[in-house]
Each structure stands twice: as structure tokens, then as C-alpha cells.
Amino acid sequence: MIKVTVIQTGTVQIKSAQVTGKPGRSALGRKIDIFKDPVWLPPLPITAFLIEHPEGLFLIDTGDTAQNSTPGYLPRWHPFFRYEVSVNVAPDEEIGVQLDRLGIDSKKDLKAVVLTHMHHDHAGGLHHFPHNRIMVPRENWRFADGFKGKLAACLPQRWPVWLKPELFDVKGPAVGPFTSSFPLTSDKRVFLVPTPGHIPGHVSVIVRGDDMTYLIAADATYKEDNIRNELVDGITADPALSLRTLQALKKFASSQPTIVLPSHDPDGATRLMNRRTFL
What we know:
This protein is an alpha/beta fold. 26% of the residues lie in helices and 23% in strands. The protein contains eleven helices and twelve strands. The strands form two sheets. The protein has a seven-stranded mixed sheet with strand order 4-1-2-3-5-6-7. A five-stranded mixed sheet has the order 8-9-10-11-12. 47% of the residues are buried.
């Protein structure tokens, strides 16, 4: 049996213009729009995903950390962290505590921790996994581990000192509208696909269940409706590339019964519980 579980690790509050950018705006223009936008959205979930597969348990992303509340943890020189985001994670909401509640010994029970990308709200819980196999897309790692990554809201200075992830390239066979793939399981029922635009090297995860497909979109979009309406977010590094990613996600989700699970969609957990598909 294959199962997907949503694990919420706190919340993040952002502007409306970050979730949905204005069509036709450049990457820079969209970021200016975020700073000018007076509309703050209600807190959105920060989500990690647990995949149960006959080959083992796979954790997709690690959520964020309560250390965000510690003065100086987020760089004050960065205007985005100072003015455009509010992260709220209690210590008992961190991913390690949540796995303990589920009866999962992360050291023994997890086959791998897989990062869709290295943004702070996806890699913030890495400190819980010093003894685990950690997998990161090579392209995203190379971008995130440097000054450009810091400008793009990654925090390499906060990564655990022991972190030496297994880097992978998504160069396997094409799957539907996706130009390549990377299998996580030998039966290829769990695999990664390239979904760039939000940040270089971003990937999403596809899980083929017995009677349903699950599309863990991560940050390729902030909500399912933006896939349906092909609306690119405001934080994208490349609006045209993000649009092509949305179109690929839409085409895939329209081709079979698929539950779409972005990382910050407030309706994602409910869709999963009710088994509500894209179509």
C-alpha cells in the first residue's frame, strides 16, 4: 500500500502579490509589486509530506524551524525577511517532534529525506536528521549554496555543519509533459520531475497510488487554482519558465485522477482527506 500524509510545521504569512503575480509582469516587477501590496493573507501552512511505500518511508521537505523566532536567525540585511514574510513555528510543530508523534523513529524508519529545493521553509528542519540519507537536486544545491541563494531566500549559513547531501540530477525518461524524471523507488511509482521557475532546480514529486496519483507540487505554485488558471506567483525567478511549469502540471493532473498538493495551499490537507482530485 502507498500512502501520502501531510505534516504541517507551523505557518507563514505573506502578501497576496506573492501568491499570485500580475500577468505580464517581469520577475523584478513582481517583486516590486509584493513590496507595494498592502494585502496580507491569512497564515498559510508550511507543509512537509510523508510517503509510505513498500520500500520504506520517504520524507519530502522538512518544513521550517522555531529558530526563526530567535533574533538574528533571519538576516536583517535582507528586505524580504524584514518586511515581507512572517514565519511562526512553535518548537512542538517542528518536523522531528511531529514524526515522533506519529510513532516514527527518524533515524531508523526513514529511507530518505528528499528536498524539493533549499528555501528556508523547506530545509529549516534539516537539523533533525543528522543520521539520515538526505537528497537534494544538484542544480538547486549549487544555486542555493552561495550569494545568489542567499538573495533568493535560502539560508546556507544556517544549514547544519554536517550537511553533505546526496546530490542527484533529474535526467531519467520523460513522463507525460515532463521532459525528464528521477525515480525514488525501484518500482518507479515514486519519482521526481523538474518544475523550475520558482527557483532554479526546483522539483516536484509524483506518487502513483493504487487508485490515485498524488502530485506534491512543493512551491511550483502556492495553490491548486493557480495551476488551473495558469497564474504564476510573484516570487518566481522566471515568469515564462514558471508558466511552462504550471502548464505541465495542469496537463499531467488533467490526464488522470490526481490530488494536487502544493506546500502552502490551505486546502491541500482537506483535498487529500476527501480524496478530491484536480478534475
